[in-house]
Description:
The structure is a single chain. This protein has strands at 2-5, 11-14, 26-30, 33-35, 37-41, 43-46, 49-50, 53-63, 66-74, 83-84, 87-94, 97-103, 106-109, 112-115, 118-123, 126-127, 130-138, 141-144, 148-153, 156-157, 160-171, 174-177, 180-184, 187-188. By secondary structure, it is mainly β. Strands 1, 4, 5, 9, 12, 13, 16, 17, 20, 21 and 24 form an 11-stranded parallel beta sheet that branches. Strands 3-8-11-15-19-23 form a 6-stranded parallel beta sheet, with no helix packed on it. Strands 14-18-22 form a 3-stranded parallel beta sheet, with no helix packed on it. The chain starts with a strand and ends with a strand.
Amino acid sequence: NALVNGNGIVKxxxxxxxxxxxxxxxxxxxxxxxxxxxxYGGQCASGFVEGPWASGNKTxxxxxxxxxxxxxxxxxxxxxxxxxxxDGVNTSFENCFSGxxxxxNTQTGVFVGVTEIGSHTFDNCYAAGKIEGxxxxxxxxxxxxxxxxxxxxxxxxxSLVGMADSGLNMGGFIGQGWGVMTFENCYAAGE
Length: 191
């Protein structure tokens, strides 16, 4: 159980890991659970791993991990139940699960909020939570930037997706995307 309160922090709240732009060129996270982790922050908040932001060639790999029974509340958007704001890195998520409720603004998803610059792969990952927001809200992913390349393989969402009365770009799997997206055997079965 944990409460991560980023009151006053504009960017970069991670429930378990928030590596930022520091550290080595390779970050590996295997077999980790975040249970009942509640995160409150500005933009780029997540229930498991946020970021990292990087310049140069960095790699983030997360395998066999999950975030469950938590809540992410983001006043600035760009947030996810499991991860968000992967900027300037190559990421790989394999056999990961997000069972977190997410309340955000824009580019917000139950698994991933936004993928930024870089190449990102999601294999055998799924999301099952609730999400509320105003724009680019998805049961699995909120959105991606035009400078990203993302592959979703064998991923699904059973998340409940809701929005404000004037909300835009809502999807059972993804809210909106501009970059290169590949979907292989993915689906959404939520409400």
